[in-house]
Amino acid sequence: MRQAGRYLPEYRAIRAKTDFLTLCKTPELASEVTVQPIDIIGVDAAILFSDILVIPEAMGMALEVIESKGPVFDHPIRSLTDLRKLNTEGVTDRLQYVMDAIKLTKQKLSGRVPLIGFSGAPWTLATYMIEGKGSKTFDTVKRFMYSEPEAMHELLRILSDAVVDYLNAKIRAGCDAVQIFDTWAGILSPRDFEEFSLQYIRYICERLETNGSPVIVFAKGVHQFDKLADLKCDVIGLDWTQDIGNVRSRIGETKALQGNFDPCILFAPKERIKEETGRILESFGGGSGHVFNLGHGILPKTPVENAKYFVSCVKELSIKYH
Ligand code: CP3
């Protein structure tokens, strides 16, 4: 959940001298910012510094991450012709810099905490590739999906194969767990979620050579937990719009649950942060299978002090339950 991000002055100092993509592509720097939050915040897993959009970039789509706008593709996909121009062969080879960053990060961590690698889910990658940037209504991607479903499926199939290859390479390079982010799953109707997102996540999960590494699926805004529970994965990520205890009783002990703290509570007074941490732990209850985490990315203006306090609350209050 963007452990290394703009809320950390140590990250901003490096970012002030390097543009975002160069940072992702320079293993020495990417591994440095990956390790920063372990030392500064005290979290007990590291997430590799990178971005989900390195896959489309490696397929030939020029990417810029602009300070106040976020990621932008200058030439988004708007037709089957655009789609067929993607360079879909050897994508993982062009992402060798990610594997190098993993190897270097593992050295720097020297076994202190596990390292999580990640990928965007095909649907979320496709939304950025078609919209060209973030969106409020997602009308461009939905128009494409409803008018040219065959082309949409072609794109989603290409992305699924790329994600399988990429995550398997990340596991081989040393990641101890992998997470699939479907950030925009929640904008789809239940039926469309099955057709345009879930079937591809299922396809990916069935083809991962995990070697025992846990697979985490985070489909933000999706409440179809029975369907998520059927995936060949180990952990389901939750945002904050559902009660973790409820989800646990619905899907049983088949999957571990990760989440579900609203990152905006990190702006509140310390008592409120502690209260919410305790509430989530109490709702999940005793036993293993709870990965405490934010329900989505930490926001750039979050006080570092509060992030540290949050982590200390989780460590202190969770002892009673696990
Ligand atoms: O925690 C970590 O350090 C891991 C790093 C990480 C980043 N992006 C770095 C980043 C991860 C896990 C991601 C995933 C990602 N990227 C997702 C899925 C997770 C989610 O948040 O939903 C998505 C949708 C993206 C696409 C993306 N990249 C967006 C929407 C943005 C803008 C973010 C913002 O806050 O404006 C980015 C850029 C980005 N990726 C930043 C970071 C640290 C901020 C860029 C900067 O330094 O200027």
Shape: globular
Q: Which small-molecule ligands are present, each listed once? A: coproporphyrinogen III
Beta-strand percentage range: 5-15%
Low-confidence stretches: none
Helix content: 40-55%
- Total count of helical runs of at least 4 residues: 15
Order of helices and strands, N to C?
A: HHHEHEEHHHEHHHEHEHEHEHEH
How would you portray this structure in words?
With 322 residues, the protein is an alpha/beta fold. The chain is 50% helix and 13% strand. The strands form 2 sheets. Strands 1-4-5-6-7-8-9 form a 7-stranded parallel beta sheet. A two-stranded antiparallel sheet has the order 2-3. Strand 6, helix 12 and strand 7 form a beta-alpha-beta unit. Helix 3 runs parallel beside helix 7. The longest helix has 25 residues. The chain is globular. It starts with 8 loop residues before the first helix and ends with a helix.
Entry keywords:
9 strands, alpha/beta, 13% strand, globular, binds coproporphyrinogen III, 7-stranded parallel sheet, 15 helices, 322 residues, two-stranded antiparallel ribbon
List the helices and strands and how they pair.
Blueprint: H1 9-15, H2 20-25, H3 27-40, E1 46-47, H4 54-58, E2 63-66, E3 70-73, H5 80-84, H6 91-94, H7 96-109, E4 115-120, H8 122-131, H9 139-147, H10 149-173, E5 177-182, H11 190-207, E6 215-219, H12 225-229, E7 235-237, H13 244-251, E8 256-261, H14 270-284, E9 290-294, H15 304-318
Parallel strand pairs: 1-4, 4-5, 5-6, 6-7, 7-8, 8-9
Antiparallel strand pairs: 2-3
This protein binds coproporphyrinogen III.
Coproporphyrinogen III binds near residues 47, 49, 118 and 134.
